[in-house]
Amino acid sequence: MEMQKTNTTSVEKFDSSSYMNMELLRFTTAGSVDDGKSTLIGRLLYDSKSIFEDQYENIRATSERRGEATVNLALFTDGLKAEREQGITIDVAYRYFSTPKRKFIIADTPGHIQYTRNMVTGASTANLAIILVDARQGIVEQTKRHSIIASLLGIPHIALCVNKMDLVNYDEAVYNKIVSEYREFATRLKTKDIHFIPISALNGDNVVNRSKNMNWYEGVTLMYLLENIHIASDINHIDLRFPIQFVIRPYSDEFHDYRGYAGRIVSGVIRKGDKVTVLPSGFSSKIKSVELDGKELDEAFAPLSVTIQLEDDIDISRGDMLVREGNVPKQSQDIEAMICWMSDKPLQLNGKYFLKHTTKDVRAIVKEVKYKLDINTLHRITENVSIGMNDVGRITIRTTAPLYFDAYTKNRDTGSFILIDEGTNVTVGACMIID
Amino acid sequence: MSYTLNHLKTLEAESIFILREVAAQFQNPAILFSGGKDSILVTYLAKKAFYPAAIPFPLVHIDTGHNFPETLEYRDSLVQKLNAKLIVGSVQESIDNNRVAEEKGYSASRIRLQTTTLLDTIEKYKFDACIGGARRDEEKARAKERFFSHRDEFGQWDPKNQRPELWNLFNGKMQVGENFRVFPISNWTELDVWQYLAMEGIEMPSLYFSHKRKVFDRDGTLLAESPYIPMKPNEKAEELVVRFRTIGDITSTGATLSTAATLNDIIQEVASSRTTERGGRADDKRGESSMEDRKKEGYF
Q1: pLDDT tens, A215-230?
Q2: How many interchain CB pairs under 8 A, A with B?
Q3: Quick check: helix, strand or coil at residue B57?
């Protein structure tokens, strides 16, 4: 996987105030083994001048030592020793780059079948998924699996990049065929915002710079899409959900009676004077102040971390939630969810697990496994169902105390929870609540 | 009304969330304070997270004894200013107690020895979570680090068997004798850190700003003239205008030629820089996976 070195000798003057308006975009990259994912990431980093000379020198030397004819850019993204030796990516690796418009966090997830759990991990916080298709191969099973996981995890935007266009003579017909095939498949996905881009990561066509080889393509480059796609509406600013994380009691002379509720607004907006309801007690109170570091804010919104004081002295602790009267989440001890299993030991029917949901810890028992999902076809398997490593299924659980939740499709924070093995303390299940 | 946050505010909100999770999930957490900009940032974020209460974690400094005097001055004044608690784990003491043996030769360093002192300090004070200022963009082994990083009873990191970390749910459950390393600023880059420090107007150690210093060149790294670094016969110190991009043990922290005198100068310099900040760190040049090997043993 060699990349042509582009000219990076000119360095623009960095505008020291412009960074105050930069937004943050998180995206995942998924692809099959040889479809050029590492090269694409290398290209994005390289063309945005995020690869440093010593890093480049380091991988150049390593490539040479291993007897490779060219500089292997996959080494940028393969961090662990075992991975470099085996030439595969084992774990999610996080990469960073920025342009004057946005800062980007890439969750680079392995494409191998056995590492679905990593893809789920990377997808859980992403705004956008880049899915790579090899122009010579077209839509393959892994393309579908990655798309289904992106959809299941509620990633709002997909960029389907048809890569290696240079190897099909930049042929429009090849691209169009792949696009129409994917469109047909995508009618079954929950993700509605899908963009298609023909690229060559190796040569840089339509990655950062517009391709001169595909004049028939009238859309934007991948970088333009990443810099400009509208993400502000991905956050729910309607339903106030404020899970209490920690109660701040200074016990000092100056702040003798101070009681601040620390937490992160997972959705909605909160203002001084707002009337709120405390769950589970159901008591009502008014917001006395919204603050951080002693500075009062007129209002605060998701995803800010703040400290809130209430007008009334109510008993509130970690795991409770502040919401608005008339807009409360569902409450129940019986919950239906899609689960992605992440452990070698299969999910136990009637098994007991620790459960983490927002800032609340409870225990849960698995009451029913409704079906297992074939994540290549979306086919539901209902007979002799066993949920093992990397499997996705639908389950019903019962919890020791009620949860306050929304459907995952409405709220990724109040709609998600994890299951933890009570013996090993390892996270074994990622769950998305169904309405 | 448009409810948008810039990237610095988004990162701040995430880091504060992590710090509060540590306070809520662990019995006896501590901040590993090196005196560098990343641990300074973590300390200021912790102050924000719990104000008006004091920071609910002590600052733990693993002291190699080979410090820049400026680092200790800054550390002590910060501790006083924030009314924080300071605990010092001394590598010299580990050497005196024969826990570790001093390396010999020109490139002798106490970096590796720090791991034993750190693990001994964790054991002595029974810390169940140590908060560090490591960032994923610093080094390739760190790119795969979790926010909540589980360590077994030997303090070791098992990179192939990390717990998946999903959404904003952080699993801090463990067996007796195990502990966690927590990295609240995982998602920040060097540039983000400087931009934030400038935005907040946080006072920084003088070593980060351009100054005159006697330095000498060793294998492409500019090291400060110091009683802790024996110079080879062919090495000669000269006074240059330099600053430090990272601050660690004096024997392994390289200076860069720079005239950056303010935070905004530093932002300009970092934004147009062509080498990484760890490029000047002699401890990372000991082999391609030196950081990963040190991390597995229990290094920060």
Answers
A1: 999 999 999 999 999 9
A2: 202
A3: coil
